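Q: I'm writing up a methods section and want to include an example of the input and output format. Could you take the sequence below and give the corresponding predicted structure tokens, formatted cleanly so I can copy it straight into the document?
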Amino acid sequence: MSPVLLSGRRVGLYLAAWAPVAGLLAWLLVRLGSAGWAGALATALPLAGVYAFVCLSSSYLCRALPLRASDLPRTLFVLAGAAAVSAALWLVLGEGWTRVLQGVGLSPNALAGYQRGRPALFGIGVLLFLLAAAAHYVKQTYDASRAAEKRALQFQLLSRETELGALRAQIHPHFLFNALNSISALTSSDPPGARSLCILLGDFLRRSLSLGARPRVPLADELALVERLLAVEQVRFGERLSSRFDVQEATRECLVPPLVLQPLVENAVTHGIASVLEGGEVRVAARLAGARLELTVENPRDPQAARRRGAGVGLDNVRKRLAALYGRDAQVLAQPLETAYRTTLRFPAELPKS
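A: Here is the clean output for your methods example:
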């Protein structure tokens, strides 16, 4: 069924669009001496309305005969034949209606004038049918373009979600590798510490899995998870590890990608604190900079220490995730300072919808 027929409003608008055609037919009949304006309009309005619905049949032909360069001659031939047949049938209906009007005395000279105008009316009928077919082809092309854009967007979103899922899946194995190494080292030197670390690790993984399943989490939840991560590492490093949180209260409600800080804090401990003999402090800061959220993780470092293997995995993971989520609106800065290492994340601040 044609989309025009799906609602009364569409039918009304479609018939209104044919009003100029009815006016043209009435003018032609008046010029041919068929009748005055009253009789001409009585003839033209029903004819235009009927032919408006006849031309809707061109949509079925357009769907059955899509425009292809290889089939173009055949398509044009079929459309021209359909236009000629439709115009001929329209002329027959028009002549019958004219006879009715003349019979009731509404338009005494209607039939003679109509017969004189048959060649022009036939040409108008063919032209109108072909114009209707062209309009349907334009609509088909537009609909196909919109559908292709929609499919491309869906594919892009699916690709992005797949990429984000793969990147998030890398976080837990990377952390578990380090945590299990710590447990292994403590089993012989500090069995109670190893048991404590196992309990802390279990609590941390339970919470991280819960957060990681959500597309966005409040920064307050992400910071709570980081605190548990530092508690896990505290068992291994003892007094060598301390932490400080400088968090603007307004940022705690901001929504952030889950597990976005964990890799950075883990790097700060594994590749920062571990390389400094006396240890040091891991500082986590959050503030609003205009419409952007700025997160900073800073740790001490030994400039002379050799770069440890895997030092860039977590940071690269975060950079890719933010790029996939925010594009150019996200910024990741890694700054090796003289005795410290600072990583800063900037991306649009997002508040939960009320």
